[in-house]
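step=encode ok
step=design start
structure_in=
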């Protein structure tokens, strides 16, 4: 939606083994390889990995394994829907209304 972003905040997955090399790949917007090698045995369903991955248009979570037959991995994630504020627009170099040029200057100066 317009003026909204999605934020991936938590991720949990069934623990694979070092032998099947199951891992999670996260892609977002234009960055197809944002996270490419998150081992599932380091995560586990009993605990969640906290993160802050903002997404403007597209999010993709993939589970990859070296086993030809694949592995049975379950995943759980939490996504927030947030307002795209002027502060976030300035930090990401997105267009701002002319009356908000001071926000860009403050972000560049490190004040915001």
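sequence_out=
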């Amino acid at each position: 939606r317009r003026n909204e972003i999605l934020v991936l905040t938590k991720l949990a997955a069934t623990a694979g083994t070092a032998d099947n090399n199951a891992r999670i790949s996260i892609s977002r917007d234009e960055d197809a390889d944002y996270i490419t090698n998150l081992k599932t045995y380091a995560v586990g369903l009993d605990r969640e990995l906290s993160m802050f991955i903002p997404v403007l248009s597209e999010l993709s979570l993939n589970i990859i394994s070296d086993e030809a037959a694949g592995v049975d991995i379950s995943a759980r994630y939490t996504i927030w829907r947030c307002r795209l504020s002027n502060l976030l627009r300035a930090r990401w170099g997105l267009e701002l209304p002319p009356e908000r040029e001071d926000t860009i200057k403050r972000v560049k100066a490190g004040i915001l």
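step=design ok
step=annotate ok -> The chain has one domain: 4-84.
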